[in-house]
Specification:
The protein is α+β, with helices and mostly antiparallel strands. The protein folds into three domains: about 1-75, no CATH class; about 85-175, DNA polymerase, domain 1 (Orthogonal Bundle), CATH 1.10.150; about 205-390, Orthogonal Bundle (hpI Integrase, Chain A). It is built from 14 helices and seven strands. Helix 3 crosses helix 6.
């Protein structure tokens, strides 16, 4: 009995020892009867209490615990402590910026992602390791947002989710996590698809007239503001005659535009190439009204050779002036129930709705606007309803009125 105790004492020192060729440590803390185990991993010391009083029992626990932790490391459940959300988010933004520089992503989208991360997402997630973020983490963040901002919309939460995904996709791209977690949301009701707010023909005429009248009032009082108002006037006409996105219009150069004569009608239209925006690059054909607006921009800017000029067609984004005119003319909100807020995006929606109402096939509109047929049908066509059906009341014989 005495010999056994001596062997036991020699094998297990009283304070600490190692197993697995020194990879795992066992030790006792002061004022604790339990043995602890731990090991180093990329600058971080992982440890756990064995809940055992004897070193032999602690060794059995430590072996199982060590190999379990190694499996978690291999599976990406344990990340390097330097791989926090805050640090990876900076890497994600840098990578996204390279995509913008290569014309693969929109600078407007990048600006939105940076703003969302900076405002509410990063302050919550910044200290978390990317490998620890999962569906439960997302729902905890969602609860936090709704408690602080009860009126946060479904669309706003979706933007937050996309911002988190951008960071986690970067972590996956760099091999910091083995897979991107799936965030599953449950809603009590089906999402209601509202029509994209647009201007009908009467509203568009009022808007058109109001901007021109505003420019004329400024002509004698402030030449710079008059110049800005005329640029806004041409911007609105250009947008509603091309269906281009806001980001695409902001990137538009004189050299990207060519005036051509339409074969069937003999009217002049614009062929716009190198359209850079949300969907990469593309090309479109304008409606007739855009030609005069383009010529006014050439004359106003004094562009001698438009086909070789890399200058932007529109220099200033006149959001404040545009919103003030909408408010003054009571055009800021649509007549739908519930009302929808109009902005520059409504100009693209106006182009699409005008083309639909004039009988242009959905496929041609989708192709010219660099979007899908499903998007045109879902967000525009089905909300126009009977106005797209000129033959709905056609009958087989006369006198049929019921």
């Amino acid at each position: 009995m005495v010999k056994s105790a001596r062997v036991q004492s020699e094998k297990y020192p009283t304070d600490s020892f190692t197993i697995l060729d020194g990879r795992c440590h066992l030790f006792r803390r002061e004022n604790s009867s339990y043995w602890w185990c731990g090991f180093h991993h990329k600058g971080k010391y992982l440890r756990s209490s064995t809940k055992q009083f004897t070193p032999a029992a602690a060794e059995v626990f430590a072996r199982e615990w060590y190999f379990k932790k190694q499996n978690e490391i291999a599976g990406g459940k344990i990340a390097n402590p330097s791989h926090t959300f805050e640090k990876v988010s900076k890497l994600a933004v840098e990578h996204y910026r390279t995509l913008v520089d290569r014309k693969l992503r929109s600078p407007v989208t990048l600006e939105g992602i940076e703003s969302i991360l900076r405002s509410r997402v990063s302050p919550y997630f910044k200290k978390l390791l990317v490998a620890e973020i999962d569906n439960t983490t997302w729902h905890s963040f969602k609860t936090h947002i709704l408690e602080k901002y009860p009126n946060a919309s479904r669309g706003t939460l979706h933007q937050y989710k996309n911002a988190v995904r951008v960071v986690l996709n970067e972590a996956f791209r760099r091999g910091l996590i083995k897979q991107v977690p799936v965030f599953k949301d449950e809603y009590s009701s089906r999402k209601i698809e509202h029509a994209r707010p647009w201007f009908d023909s009467n509203e568009y005429k009022r808007l058109h007239t109001a901007i021109l009248a505003h420019a004329n009032r400024l002509k004698k009082t402030d030449k710079l503001l008059h110049k800005h108002a005329m640029e806004l006037y041409d911007y609105v006409i250009f947008a509603t005659n091309t269906g281009m996105r806001v980001g695409e219009l902001n990137n538009l150069r004189f050299m990207d535009i060519q005036i051509v004569q339409e074969k069937m009608t003999g009217n002049e239209v614009l062929i716009i190439s190198n359209i850079r925006g949300k969907r990469g690059t593309g090309i479109c054909q304008s409606y007739y009204g855009a030609v005069a607006a383009f010529r006014r921009r050439i004359e106003s800017r004094g562009i001698e050779k438009p086909s070789k000029s890399p200058e932007k067609v529109f220099l200033v984004h006149h959001r404040t002036m545009f919103n003030n005119i909408l408010e003054n003319k009571k055009l800021k909100f649509s007549k739908t129930v519930p009302p929808s807020r109009r902005d520059f995006v409504s100009l693209r929606a106006t182009y699409i709705c005008f083309r639909l109402l004039n009988g242009v096939p959905v496929y041609e509109i989708a192709n010219n606007c660099r979007t899908s047929v499903a998007m045109i049908e879902q967000s525009y066509a089905r909300h126009l309803g009977g106005r797209l059906m000129p033959n709905i009341n056609r009958t087989a014989s006369e006198g049929w009125d019921y």
